[in-house]
Amino acid sequence: MSDIKLGIAPIGWTNDDMPTLGGETTYQQILSEVALSGFQGTEIGNKYPKDPAILKPQLEIRGIRIAAAWHGLHLTTEPYEKVEAEFIAFRDYMAALGADCINVAEQGHTIQGRRDVGIFDGKPTYTDEEWERLTAGLDRIGERAAEKGLIIAYHHHMGTGVQTTAEIDRLMAATDPSKVKLLLDVGHLLFSGEDPAAIVNKYADRIGHVHLKDVRPAIVEKAKQEKLSFLDSILAGVFTIPGDGETDYGPLLRPVLDAGYHGWFMIEAEQDPAIADPFVQAVNARRYLKDTFGF
Predict the structure, then answer these.
(1) In the UniProt record, does the keyword Lyase occur (predicted)?
(2) Which of 19, 31, 242, 269 has most Cβ atoms within 10 angstroms of its Cβ?
(3) Are 213 and 220 in contact (CB under 8 A)?
């Protein structure tokens, strides 16, 4: 277990999809509170400087580093050459920061940022031709990442064409395990109605990055009944930190540990920071990980 690195994403402090949430918070405060709460690293947020020469010293003085970052792809809707060029530019930025992983998610037809569409009613699906473009493109993107010593981990996500168990299975079956890993996000699986344990057991040896958050079942039901969008579900409090929900992460993640996973456990529970104090959430999440895993 000592090979596991613990991090917390900045999305609890300020939200990339809704920048007004935590809009007054500086990146220096985020980094300081990440370090103070006992984490080893973080992910990239919208407040962070785009110049590694500025960001790296701010990380180093606090004794933390960048683990990974989200990067949206449009393989189903845009020419591959354009997608690859954008990815390479981001890959080089991440490599300059010494990151380990890039969290990729297909954004073609996504509704995750649309507040006028219910997260369950408006979910897109891909055609066979789009699936081919996506999976073939991911293998090539994985090769580009490896050129700089990085891996890509695919982030199944609410409101996209890779959300359900069947869609995750299709993507995993059609991509090269040496080039495309899986980002396990327990919160998104629970929100979608999937069985996280089944996904963990099936893909334990292919998981490249782990996002840890839980859901509030009453808010999931509210999102279904009231046809809430993804963003409005977040504002309603659908996500919360491990330890504040019903999921017992010890047995759930045991197959990942047994498979020799040596990446990151990253807390990533986006909430309204005016309601869920990000620093308090970070401290509580870190305590839960210590109590659950012993590290």
Answers:
(1) yes
(2) 269
(3) no
Residues 170-227 have pLDDT tens digits of: 999 999 999 999 999 999 999 999 999 999 999 999 999 999 999 999 999 999 999 9
Provide the residue range defining the domain that includes 143.
Answer: 5-293
pLDDT, tens digit, for every residue of 84-109?
A: 999 999 999 999 999 999 999 999 99
3-state secondary structure the chain: CCCCEEEECHHHCCCCCCCCCCCCCCHHHHHHHHHHCCCCEEECCCCCCCCHHHHHHHHHCCCCEEEEEEEEECCCCCCHHHHHHHHHHHHHHHHHCCCCEEEEEECCCCCCCCCCCCCCCCCCCCCHHHHHHHHHHHHHHHHHHHCCCCEEEEECCCCCCCCCHHHHHHHHHHCCCCCCEEEEEHHHHHHHCCCHHHHHHHHHHHEEEEEECEECHHHHHHHHHHCCCHHHHHHHCCEECCCCCCCCHHHHHHHHHHCCCCCEEEECCCCCCCCCCHHHHHHHHHHHHHHHHCC
CA diameter of the chain: 49
Number of domains in the chain: 1
Q: What is the spatial distance between Cα 59 and Cα 178, in angstroms, rounded to a whole number?
A: 30
